[in-house]
Every structure is written in structure tokens, then in C-alpha cells.
Amino acid sequence: MKKERTKKPFYKKIWVWAIIIIVVIVAANIGGGDDSKESTATKETTKATTQKIKKESSPSKNKTPKKDLPYPETAVQTTLGAGTFSIGDDIKAGRYTIHTNESSGNISSGMCLNEILGADSSIAVNDVVTTFKDGEELQIQGLNNVTFTPKVAGTLPDKPTLTKFNSGTYYVGVDIIEGKYIVSTNDTSGNFNVGLNVNEILGTDASLATNNIQVNLKDGDEIQLAGLNNTTFTPK
Fold first, then answer.
1. Architecture of domain 69-152
2. Contact 232, 159 (CB under 8 A)
């Protein structure tokens, strides 16, 4: 007797294929998810590396190139008495503020320094700012104790502001920003020079001096003040 084949119900075949399809889809998603994660991680690593390179190669915004100064930065705190001294041997070249607590005496060096130095403001000036160069000679008379303190360049404002100087040598672009100023003093008289452009006797004594002088200062100009304890530069 011939056996008949038993046919599987149709709905069972459908479920088998459905399960196979689901398994394939799930496997594909798992593989794709890993690739996506790897791709995202790679992008993040590349981005971080690029940012690091840019940060290292970009110049810092906070760093300002140092301005070249018109004098050597070799000054050293020094105290001297009366006598004749050699710049470079007895005192280092550089820029100084010169002070004494004594009443008055004479101090001179080169073409830029020739003052009555002292604490008596009626006849002398104090805290004179000057620059010494190697090979120059310094003379001090009538003073037992004169202090030379290195003058350090400060930070300039962004625009002209009211500025006050004692006697001495000053540099536009280092001590005062360039611009137009009215220059005045409460002292009786003294000398005021700016390069070859200004050469005045500045003071309150109208019989021999002028006051409230208008000047236009340019970077690199050198200002010379002599015999004046307090000179004011007021922006115009």
C-alpha cells in the first residue's frame, strides 16, 4: 500500500520564513550599529586632533611683542658719593631715576644731564630720570649719597592721558603715548626740548619763560626736561 506524504500546513512555512527574515534584519542592524559607533568615534577623534593642532599653531592673543627700547636694560641699583665716575665701570649703563635726601649738589654727565640735585625744591630738582651709556663720565659734587634706581618701562594707555614728568630724558612710545598735548609747569623756569622741533624755556615767570605750550609728539621723539620738578602733559 502506497504511503501518502503529509503536507505541512501553509501557515507554518510562512512563520519559518518570517523568523529567518527577522534574524537577518536584526543581525544587519547590529553590524550597522557597530559601524556607526566606530564612525562617530573616528569623527570625534579627528575633530579633537584638528582642534588641538589649531590651538597649538595659533599665536596667543595675550602675548604682545616686546617693544624695542631706546636704551640698554642693564641698569643696576647703585649708590655713589661725590667724585668722578666711569659709566660701565663704576655704574652700569642703562636708565635710572636719580635721588638724594641731601639739600643740594651738582650732578652732570654728557650732554643730557646737568642739574642741581637735591631735596630743596626752591633751588634743586630730584628724582631725575636719565640714560647712561658705556664710556660716558659722571660727575657728582657736594653730595655724599646719591641713589641710582633702575627705571623700568611701564605699560602705556591706549590713548593720550594726562602725564607728569620730573626733570630728565623721556621717550615718546615708552613713557608717553604719541599725540597732541599742552605742556605746562608750576615751576618758575626750566628748559623744555623735543628733538629739534621744540626748544623752550618753560615756566610761570612770564618775563623769561613761556607756559602752556602745544606740542605734537610722535613715536621715537625724545623729550628733555631740565630744572623742572613737575611738568604736566595734558592731552589736547
1. Sandwich (2.60)
2. no
